[in-house]
Design goal:
Layout lengths: L1 H67 L7 H68 L8 E2 L2 E2 L1
Helix pairs in contact: 1-2
């Protein structure tokens, strides 16, 4: 009988520790996901800045080539330079948008992971409490320490 009670106690404690461990693991995973999202975001912002800078340099080079060739910066030459700048700005914005979306995805995934960890923690605690309650009920039933009064003895009631 004592082995059964010991087994139930170990199971209850194990359930609690399992819930705590799952919660801690989920929190660490969520922290890592958020950090990765931040890296993706910063990298996309850096890349977008480089794209814009390269676009400005290329447009400036176009301007110098037109001027060096004796072409005035009007009409189609000016339109070509403006299109170059617009293309660079559009590409840079697309890279920024991708970084924002990537960070958002990682943040949402981290939040779900945290929720899973909390659910595991709560489940582990309730499992442990349930195990301890079963243990106490079994222990009281075997030792006869129940507070329920029953029966009539020699005409007297309890």
């Amino acid at each position: 009988m004592s082995l059964l009670l010991a087994g139930m106690a170990i199971s209850a404690v194990g359930s609690i520790f399992s819930g705590v461990s799952s919660h801690i693991s989920a929190q660490q995973a969520a922290t890592d996901m958020r950090a990765e999202g931040e890296i993706v975001f910063r990298e996309s912002m850096r890349t977008a800045t480089i794209i814009e800078e390269e676009g400005r340099k290329f447009a400036a080079g176009q301007s110098l080539q037109y001027i060096g060739s004796g072409v005035q910066l009007t009409g189609s030459a000016l339109i070509t330079i403006a299109q170059t700048k617009k293309y660079a700005a559009t590409e840079a914005q697309a890279v920024r948008d991708k970084g924002v979306a990537g960070k958002g995805l990682m943040d949402r995934t981290a939040a779900r992971k945290e929720n899973e960890g909390r659910a595991s923690l709560i489940s582990g605690i309730f499992g442990g409490v349930s195990g301890f309650a079963s243990l106490m009920g079994t222990s009281k039933a075997k030792t006869g320490t129940s507070k329920v009064k029953t029966g009539i003895v020699a005409g007297k009631t309890d």
